[in-house]
Amino acid sequence: MDGVPRKLIDECKDRLLKTKSDILNRVQNTRRDLFSEEKGGDEADLTMRALAESENLQMNHRLRRQLIEIESALLRIENGSYGVCEETEESIESERLRAIPWTRLSIEGAEIRESITKRFAR
Predict the structure, then answer these.
(1) I need a labelling partner for 121 at 20 to 30 A (CA). Which of 10, 41, 47, 106 fits?
(2) What is the CATH classification number for the domain harbouring 25?
(3) Of 51, 52, 11, which is closest to residue 30 (Cα–Cα)?
(4) What is the DSSP string of 51-120?
(5) What is the sign, positive or negative, of the torsion defined by CA atoms of 75, 79, 3, 84?
(6) Nearest to residue 102, comparing CAs of 72, 62, 65?
(7) CB-neighbour burial class of residue 82 (10 A; exposed 0-12, middle 13-18, buried 19+)
(8) Res. 1: pLDDT tops 70
(9) pTM
(10) What crossing angle do the helices spanning 6-36 and 43-79 adopt, rounded to 10°?
């Protein structure tokens, strides 16, 4: 963690923990709302409920992926590799860490990864 100032690491860790807590609360509230709805109704009600459930499942999937990224970032803080780009092995820009504290890539690393993805997507 030589490349990332301790103050920035602490700032990012606090943000990661707050975001993790917010996501867990959202998932819990969504689950509670989903199971507290009435199960009766006509065909239109059932269709709307099915659409809402599908949307909630998609949102929960995205939130779970973000939780995995947050946990991974917290682990990188603990093991001393936080703030190092997985692609270039250079320090990730401070502004980028502040904006996306769970990021694994610097701007350059993200561009490299995107170009590789595009190249192999054809």
Answers:
(1) 106
(2) 1.20.120.910
(3) 52
(4) HHHHHHHHHHHHHHHHHHHHHHHHHHHHHT-TTB-TTT-SBPPHHHHHH-TT----HHHHHHHHHHHHHH
(5) negative
(6) 72
(7) buried
(8) no
(9) 0.81
(10) 160
**Residues found in the chain:** 122
Domain count, the chain: 1
What residues pair up with 84 in beta bridges, in sequence order? 91
Element of type H or E holding 33: helix 6-36
Which contacts of 111-116 are long-range, i.e. CB under 8 A and separated by 24 or more positions? Answer: 112/87, 112/88, 113/87
Residue 63 in contact with residue 27, Cβ under 8 Å? yes
Residues with Cβ within 8 Å of residue 12, at least 6 apart in sequence: 73, 77, 82, 97, 98, 101
Query: Tell me, what DSSP letter sits at residue 24?
Result: H
Q: Residue 63 and residue 23: Cα distance in Å, rounded?
A: 7
The reply to whether 26 falls in a domain is yes
Query: What confidence tens digit (pLDDT) does each residue in 47-72 have?
Result: 888 888 888 889 889 999 999 999 99
